[in-house]
Amino acid sequence: MTELGLDAAGPWQDEEFVRGWVEADTIAGLLAFPRAVSAALVKQDRPQANKIVDIGSGTGEFLAVFLDEFPDARGVWTDASEAMLDIARTRLAEYGDRVEYQLVDMTDLAHANLPRDIDVVLTSRAAHHLDRPALFDFYREAGERLASGGWLVNLDHIGPRDDTWNQRLRTVRKRFQPQGKTSKPHHHNYPLTGVADHFDALTAAGLTDHEIAWRGLITCLFMARKN
Fold first, then answer.
1. CB atoms within 10 A of CB 140
2. Any bridge partners for residue 102, and if so which?
3. Nearest Cα to 128, choosing from 198, 185, 52?
4. Smallest Cα–Cα separation from 67: which of 45, 37, 109, 95?
5. Contact present, 139 and 55 (Cβ < 8 Å)
6. Apex CA 91: angle with CA 87 and CA 92, to 5°?
7. In this structure, how many other beta carbons lie within 10 angstroms of the beta carbon of residue 21?
8. Which of 156, 174, 208, 214 is the most exposed place for a label (fewest CB within 10 A)?
9. pLDDT digit string, tens, across residues 169-181
């Protein structure tokens, strides 16, 4: 595991921390719409997608959306957290042998045992742990595993261009978040990478057919199709 991977994954090795974070995750319900949008957009373009890999999958919610949208597809759940693996196995149990589970460091996909010619690479609320160089590496390594015409889908938090807008958007977001427990602090790569960083990294990876398909305050749905 890389040094950045160790920093990002550290707290997620603690079972108590992970369960506390899952219980305090008040934003999960707000992401149901963009997840459904991403699956619909991919299905419109690639209705026979059958190989889906979720990087930093956590509880497996995003992967489940795609497995429902593509009932003949098989998925690969990956995360650096063994504690999350236990939760995901329970969450995804209904899909049986359609799901394979792997412990993977997203900062070192080159050494992960992932398939090639993937139809869809998903990731959600994970890439904001990466700095700009690591984001470039992640998109490049993920893009190399995509089939021609395959999709990279990233639903994640971004850093606005200046601190004033960052504070405005974060403050307003609190009004629309369900109130619940507060999770313990964990590693973030501040300042978070912004929209320009993502577009630059996608372009450098050769994924020039890209767009923000949805945005809600500081959360963006980046989608890119491999030419």
1. 17
2. 78
3. 198
4. 95
5. no
6. 115
7. 21
8. 174
9. 989 988 877 665 5
Spatial neighbors of 87 by CB under 8 A, at least 6 apart, are: 18, 19, 22, 58, 59
Tell me which of 179 and 196 has the higher pLDDT: 196
Supply 103's token pair.
């412990």
Residues in the chain: 227
The per-residue pLDDT for range 111-153, each reduced to its tens digit, is 999 999 999 999 999 999 999 999 999 999 999 999 999 999 9
Confidence of residue 27 (pLDDT cuts 50, 70, 90): confident
Q: Supply 75's token pair.
A: 């998925």
**Average per-residue pLDDT for the chain:** 91
Q: Which residue has the tokens 């160089």?
A: 133
- Entry pTM: 0.90
Cα–Cα distance measured from residue 143 to residue 120, given in angstroms and rounded to the nearest whole number: 10
Task: List the structure tokens of 16.
Answer: 């108590």
Closest of 69, 84, 95 to residue 21, by C-alpha: 84
